[in-house]
Specification:
The protein is 0% helix and 50% strand. The strands form two sheets. Strands 2, 4, 5, 6, 9, 10 and 11 form a seven-stranded mixed sheet that branches. The chain has a four-stranded antiparallel sheet with strand order 1-3-8-7, with no helix packed on it. Strand 4 and strand 5 form a beta hairpin. It starts with a strand and ends with a strand.
């Protein structure tokens, strides 16, 4: 049974930074790609970033250059470092591992 738990969300001013974490249970973490998605109020869920088991990273154009995804296989944890945050980054952020999803963590960017 895979269980994902996100943390690190909160309220931040425009231009600020946050680091999200996603801790995964189970022994399949290091063999699988991980990803981050987000869903803003009234909008469809969108893919944000992904990292392969070998560490290859990809980003949505909307966050490229501002967000950085990383993983620590020893801790079964994936991170999303978010910088230069904008109000349009406000959303619930979810991490994924294969077909599994976390419960989400709220990020609000507002002055």
């Amino acid at each position: 049974q895979v269980h994902l738990v996100e943390s690190g969300g909160g309220l931040v001013q425009p231009g600020g930074s946050l680091r999200l974490s996603c801790a995964a249970s189970g022994s399949i973490f290091s063999d699988n790609a991980m990803g981050w998605y987000r869903q803003a109020p009234g909008k469809e869920r969108e893919w944000v970033a992904g990292i392969s088991s070998g560490g290859f990273r990809r980003y949505a154009d909307s966050v490229k250059g501002r967000f950085a995804i990383s993983r620590d296989n020893a801790k079964n944890t994936v991170y999303l470092q978010m910088s230069s945050l904008k109000p349009e980054d406000t959303a619930v952020y979810y991490c994924t591992l294969g077909p599994h999803w976390g419960q989400g963590t709220q990020v609000t960017v507002s002055s």
